[in-house]
Amino acid sequence: MANPVEMVTEDPASSGPESVSRLDRSRFNFQHSWFDKDVLPDWEKFTASLIGKKLYILEVGSFEGASTTWILDNLMTHPDSSITVVDTFEGGMEHQGSDMYDIASLENRFRANVGKCEHVNKLRVMKATSDDALLDLRHEKACFDFIYIDASHVAIDVLHDAVLCWRMLNLDGTMVFDDVAWKGYMEDCYNPRIAIKSFLQCAEQELESIETAGQMWVRKVVNHIPATPNTDSALYYWDKGMAVKL
Fold it and tell me: What SS3 class is residue 186?
């Protein structure tokens, strides 16, 4: 089971959200600027219609809080909105044994960053693996309007997160996958893309998707591909040749 959840409060060491514009990203301390440099324009474009609405948001994987702080500043303006973040703050498989990421201070950097946001009181942090936290959320019957998946980059983990999160995504909700083009391993069986593409194929009947430079944006829609019973007994089972192709 996941560790006890925490509600985050403003960082007392910060100058306070009232003194700095929410649009000023320079107030945060990010050692890595992937979100701002690579995907922020797409987020501003695709979430424009969500601003001001009551939203329940789930973020699976936050790292330093780059996306979390943007969500807090831009998508938490409705008084009843909330965001839940799931992260171990121990980094992923690709971070282990590297000095580039300073994993030892990762959680402190995350908490310092989100503490500078005006709506930090709407943030719930579940310090746990997605294996545990997502099952806990399912048991709580949690539902979300927007889900961002950016936790483990190992394909089987991405697929796991996708399936559990999809069950909690409201109709007409949005789910975003990061690192759709990332190829950190020579073996495709480890990389996120194969998991994301497999999920899209399995849930094709109830989604619409668009791939950007580095992410996959998916909208949950009413089932638009009804199941057609197979009445041809000669085609009732995959033949061995076709099964190999799949």
Answer: coil
The alpha carbon dihedral of 223, 78, 48, 44 has a sign of negative
Cα 144 to Cα 121: distance, rounded to the nearest angstrom = 18
How far is Cα 180 from Cα 183, in angstroms, rounded to an integer? 9
Q: Could you give the strand order of the β-sheet that contains 207-211, starting from the edge strand earlier in sequence?
A: 6-7, 123-127, 82-87, 56-60, 144-149, 169-178, 215-220, 207-211
CB atoms within 10 A of CB 59: 24
pLDDT means per 10 residues, the chain with 246 residues, are: 49 44 83 87 96 98 94 97 95 58 84 95 97 97 98 94 98 96 91 96 98 96 95 82 55
pTM of the model: 0.88
Question: What is the Rg, in whole angstroms, of the alpha carbon atoms belonging to the chain?
Answer: 19
Measured CA angle at 162 (ends 160, 164), to 5 deg? 70
